[in-house]
Amino acid sequence: MDKRFIRNFVIIAHIDHGKSTLADRFLELTGTVETRKMHAQYLDTMDIEQERGITIKMQPVRMQYVLDGDPYTLDLIDTPGHVDFTYEVSRSLAAVEGAVLLVDATKGIQAQTLANLRLAQKEGLVVVPAINKIDLPNADPEKVSEELTALLGIEASAISHISAKDGIGVKELLSRVIKEVPSPKTETQKVARIRALVFDSSYDTYKGALAYVRVVNGRVRRGDAISFFATGALCEVLEVGYFKPHMLVTEAIEEGEIGYIATGLKDVSKCRVGDTITNNAQLSISSSNRGPGENFQTHIEPLPGYAEPRPMVFASFYPTEGDDFDMLRDALSKLKLNDAAITFEPETSEALGRGFRCGFLGMLHLEIAKERLRREFDIDLVVTTPSVLYKVTCNDEKVLDIAAAGFLPDPALVKEIHEPWVELDIVTPLSFMGNIMELVKAFRAIYKETEYLSKDHLVLHYEAPLAEIITNFYDRLKSVSSGYASMNYNLSGYRQGDLIKLDILVAGESVEAFSHIAPRQSAENRGRRIVERLKELIPQQLFAVSLQAAIGGKVIARETISAMRKDVTGYLYGGDYTRKRKLLEKQKKGKKKMKAIGRVNIPSNVFLEMLKE
Ligand code: GTP
User: Fold this and answer.
1) If you measure from the C-alpha of residue 58 to the centroid of ligand 1, how many angstroms do you get, rounded to a whole number?
2) Nearest C-alpha to atom 15 of ligand 1 is from which residue?
3) Which one of 36, 52, 462, 572 is most buried, by most CB atoms within 10 A?
4) Which residue has the higher pLDDT, 135 or 405?
5) What's the pTM value of the predicted model, to 2 decimals?
6) Between residues 464 and 521, which one has the greater pLDDT?
7) pLDDT at residue number 379
């Protein structure tokens, strides 16, 4: 393929600013998807994405378009906008030359607009800015344009005004992409040799690990012997192709193109995101083709990869039914095939049985994994209180990584506890600044500085402990700003904290799933809140149930759920045994979704509700 007619680009934006809708219009305009098959957010292929209207996974798609008589091949990658999935965005950026930066005309620049723009600039991409949703009555494109010109240092005329919903300005925007985004660079390296960057992967039962690649040098064909630089895996290419957006087999994918390579590898960890695929030196270059003394491997440099995704939030997953443990292990392994950022390792708890300690990129990521396990694998879970990863220094100087309160050593043995901190950026209209400054005080955040995007729209820079902002901070931020403020955060390092273990006891038994590592200063309040909430959530039992929060054995808050006797068949007098049996069976089924903690049956949704506390 003539590289002059290839354009590789992404659409980046804050969540809900309209990426998937714009991608839909591009797909229609280029005739990539037939009109009768078109539906909203076409590239969001997972059920959860469609239902929630959010993009979780990046999705590449190839489009063909003729401009001024020239036939162009456009490889677009639609990216997620939520902070948890910044890692997906950063990977897709390394596979392209340009980015459409989409900003909602009613909201203006928001936290992920800035974060994703910085990532695109770092990759040296050409940025094509566009203001979306100009059809809305409360759109203020002039104001957003002012902000963007200041931020990007460009003229207002360089910003497209579009409505992805109504298709206004979309054709012109695509023409701009073709004119402004450069075609892939020609490498000077003499390459019959392959270099392809793996920017994503998935798994197919028949074709093994599928590497989603940007070919930087050479050409990959079926039957080629290839190897992975980092993992050292060797394989023969079973198939190559590109995304339409379904996978379409082709003869070869070559320099400058985005496509996939079916590797046949059964172990997906061998096909690692960020790795470089190259020829298998032993098989594909016969010695007669090599120069005298030429060592093949020393001539090829791997492409710059990606940092491994770092789990930020940990929680344990326990099956409600003890015997679902093996099912859960299989399900997690399968989930990981398409979501490499999940980590998990087996864990045993006295009260909850056998389960897994899992690591996630954030709370949305956790919630989605849990939801997928329920839908795709029919596994009902008990999920323990999410935690960050603490570094606990013991008196003997040993440092332990602890991600659950239940694993904290005896306080007498602990010298110091260090917790992760983040740089927290909050973008807000000026009118909510007071509310936000008040709010963050309760979250141990430290104010750093204010940056103005315009006279009444600003970025507040803070530092904060990660543990404070992963749970309900975002909801609170939205509520004190009527939905206008947004936030982004980056891990900045570890700092010592005055932290203690907060135990929660149900009917006298400590329930690890509810226990917390908490700052001493707010532990009492938190303990009180938790027992009050549990009182609302746990149904009455046949006996009175005490709920207690305790620190180091000292009870700091207590509630009691009064006893109740429930006879489900009581009102069925007479001898209709079938109805009676049916009711008892129904009740038994209902019980399945309960977890017995000591004598108390706790419905599994209570554990999920408590995640939000
Ligand atoms: P994530 O993938 O979750 O980050 O969202 P997104 O950026 O892909 O946004 P999406 O395309 O899902 O659009 C979000 C909402 O805005 C949807 O309800 C769209 O219908 C709506 N929307 C997108 N573009 C326009 C537009 O031009 N005008 C109007 N009125 N609504 C739009």
Assistant:
1) 16
2) 16
3) 462
4) 135
5) 0.82
6) 464
7) 86
